[in-house]
Amino acid sequence: AAGSRAFYEKLLDRARGMPAVLDATLALRAPLSGSGGGMAQNLTISGVLPRPGDTPPRVKYTVIGLNYFRTLGITLAKGRDFHSHDQPTAAKVMIVNLTMARQFWPNEDAVGKTARLSNDPPNTERTVVGVVGDTRINSVGEAAQPYFYLPYAQSRFSSMNLIARTGVDPVQMAR
């Protein structure tokens, strides 16, 4: 994992160093990429006891690099973005979209709330550090759905996609 992180840091440095690139980031699944919205995990809200027979909700998510929201022009509504201190040994964090914040913490501020994800080690709690605007995950015409983001540095994934915002025709940049 450390080797792949070093590779992606070099890739981002090279991409950001190109004159036409305004910003660049990483994502496990890019929006509207035809991935079906990516993966989903079961989610347990800390302090909320499920009713007998209820199954934990499954919520879709992606793993992202630093500056993802800035690169894609997604509004940070509350809290903070991921930053370089969100490392593997640091407290586990997540960012949720507005729809998820409203659904799981109605009439409350989601920032500072905690949840447990099914793919994390047992008893690991993630703190919501930010709330971002809703984006379309699969298609432009879809309704907003709960969605969350995990920082790349705290993920187990080694394969990511480079996303760049350019000042020129993106087709020219593909070369």
SSE arrangement:
Layout: H1 2-16, E1 21-27, E2 39-45, E3 58-64, H2 68-72, E4 76-79, E5 93-97, H3 98-104, E6 114-117, E7 126-132, E8 147-151, E9 161-166, H4 170-174
Parallel strand pairs: 3-8, 5-7
Antiparallel strand pairs: 1-9, 2-3, 2-6, 4-7, 5-8, 6-7
Could you characterize what this model shows?
The protein is of the alpha+beta class and 175 residues long. It is built from four helices and nine strands. The chain has helices at residues 2-16, 68-72, 98-104, 170-174, and strands at residues 21-27, 39-45, 58-64, 76-79, 93-97, 114-117, 126-132, 147-151, 161-166. The strands form two sheets. Strands 2-3-8-5-7-6 form a six-stranded mixed beta barrel. Strands 1-9 form a two-stranded antiparallel sheet. Strand 6 and strand 7 form a beta hairpin. The model has no long low-confidence stretch (mean pLDDT 89).
